[in-house]
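Input record (Table S2, row 229):
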Amino acid sequence: MDKKIIIAIDGFSSCGKSTFAKQIAKKLNYLFIDSGAMYRAVTLAFKQHGIIQDGKIDSSRYKQTLQEIEVGFSLNKSKGVYEITLDGTVVENEIRKPEIANCVSIVAAIAEVRERMVDLQRKLGEQKGIVMDGRDIGTVVFPNAELKIFMTADPKIRAERRLKELVEKGINITMEEVLENIRERDHLDQTREVSPLRKAEDAVILDNSHMTVDEQMEWVENLVNSRIH
Ligand code: CDP
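Output record (cytidine-5'-diphosphate complex):
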């Protein structure tokens, strides 16, 4: 019988990690968890509580709020996916807005925020049979994951993909704004002190700049098979 494994997918922003992770999870009948959504939900909470003003965090108040909020996932039965919740309310749409994307990397750089989210992520992975995407999944959250993939793509191609996604959601934004946000987040994510974005030594690199979603799946099939048998 196939064994259940943990698949960790890390990489730069807007590489299509979540789309890829979701597809692998569907194929294997695994749980898919978007760890970025969790940092976005904390960012939303901090905004709602007035803890982020002019792109700066109120360091005297965030700890209290972090303790009081509840980030989780709830199953959307009709879509067959888990959606992010903040204090029990699904916030999947709110967290994708540019005003959240613009602040999420400063929130994700806070050690206490990461500690809480990593605890939750590890709990979700206890039973294995999980695909999780993020920035530190293969390095910090699941250093023993059986399969680690590090995704990258040309920044311009990433910006085009993200722009298309946002426009489809009816969000008004320019290509320059998207590219600027991607560059800034990549920089913050790679240079922060706590759990910076980096490739785990045993991760396999996937540059999907010129790959279709189907080609990606073909690429990963042998890798997955070699780890589950
Ligand atoms: O979808 P996209 O790649 O643009 O970003 P995301 O996966 O939604 O993550 C949003 C932000 O959360 C990232 O830019 C990181 O700053 C942070 N993040 C993190 O620090 N650690 C993770 N495991 C996942 C996301």
